[in-house]
Amino acid sequence: MPNSTTAVPAPVVPFRSSFPVVPYLILPDLLLAIVLAFGPNLRFRLLFYALFSYACISGLLLTTGDRMQDYSMGSMLGGQFFTATHLLLFAEPLVQYRHREDKDEPQKRSFWRRALWTWCIVHSPRGIGWNYQVLSVPPRPLPCSKWAFIRSRILQIVKFYILMDMAQSYIRLNTLFTNPPPNATITSQGWLLQMISGAAWMTTPYAGMSMQYCLFAVASVGLGFSNPEDWPDTYGTWKYAYTVRNFWGKFWHQMIRRYVTSIGKFVCRKLGFQPGTWYSSYTQLYVAFFVSAVLHCFGDVMVGWEYLGASFPFFVSQAFGITFEDIAIHLFKRTGLRNRSRVNKAIGYVWVVFWMSFSLPWYIDWAVNAGLGRSEVLPFSPVRYVLRALSFL
């Protein structure tokens, strides 16, 4: 791995109180479900929304003691904030939402049964089995026995752990991440390592979210709370990632699509754009990535207020990349050239790799300089253990 000749000390972290998970991540969700179960009027929803927002923002002033964990927790608080925004301001779950297994009207149930029902809505961002299921969710698993499903998900957990360990081992062994020079950038090590570094960095959330999701699936199905078909994969398949639009819309997770869609449609209504028009489509595109950028800025702030907005350029730039891509595709179609799908897809994959390697430094460089690359994400590294046993380390 390339070595850095100029070492810099770890960023000085001012003292902050520890971040308690229960009052900032678990309790707000429970209170949100309880409030939604009441079916409150708009005035009460606005009041609770203000209190909920205050709790999310105040959590950013605390710390887990690890900068990578701070970024993750801050982003989770951002997700909670926008989930509450959607459910309190843009939806009426008791009136609009229904699950395929509902046999009666939720309003007629006891309060605590309604609260459990709304709690499921809070924690069903993709709406699997609900009438609000978002677009581009991977196919649902075929019906199978409980234990066959659990075995398959345990194997997936092992697979994602090893994948994450490989990515983290690369990061931990590359001094650009662990001992960065001033103003470090992943572009400094050449284009090939720039691509590898970008892929390794993005593999951490990809594998981490997949592992967490599989653990919840095993627990839920094992305890009889849900069925195997309720747990489609977190991410789509790579075969769709031949355009930047498909990369984000069909391959990457859809956990934030519920609220970026509702906010985007709200903006279009206020601007008077009719559904299905060019104005509506691109307004929703830019609003979606704007909301995603703001969500990740919650993570920036929890790392440190001086990093506010550091994640913003990368996510907003994706909307511009998709716009450029759409223009190029439109112009190609107007040429009348023969549509060779395999050739076009091959060109598309090359374009996506180029675009991601071009734009990812805007997401990674600030994090490297902030010290996020020094974090040890996994409790145990089989990959580095094997490398040490083989005397490669």
UniProtKB/TrEMBL annotation:
Presence of the UniProt keyword Membrane in the record: yes
Location of the protein in the cell: Membrane
Keywords: Membrane, Transferase, Transmembrane, Transmembrane helix
Domain of life according to the entry: Eukaryota
Pfam family for this entry, one: MBOAT_2
Domain Wax synthase: 231-316
Gene Ontology MF term list: transferase activity
Glycoprotein recorded as keyword: no
Membrane topology label: Multi-pass membrane protein
Main location: membrane
InterPro entries: Wax_synthase (IPR044851), Wax_synthase_dom (IPR032805)
Chain ranges passing through the membrane: 21-39, 46-65, 71-91, 311-332, 344-364
Family: Belongs to the wax synthase family.
Matches recorded under PANTHER family: LONG-CHAIN-ALCOHOL O-FATTY-ACYLTRANSFERASE 3-RELATED, WAX SYNTHASE DOMAIN-CONTAINING PROTEIN
Name recorded for this polypeptide: Membrane bound O-acyl transferase family-domain-containing protein
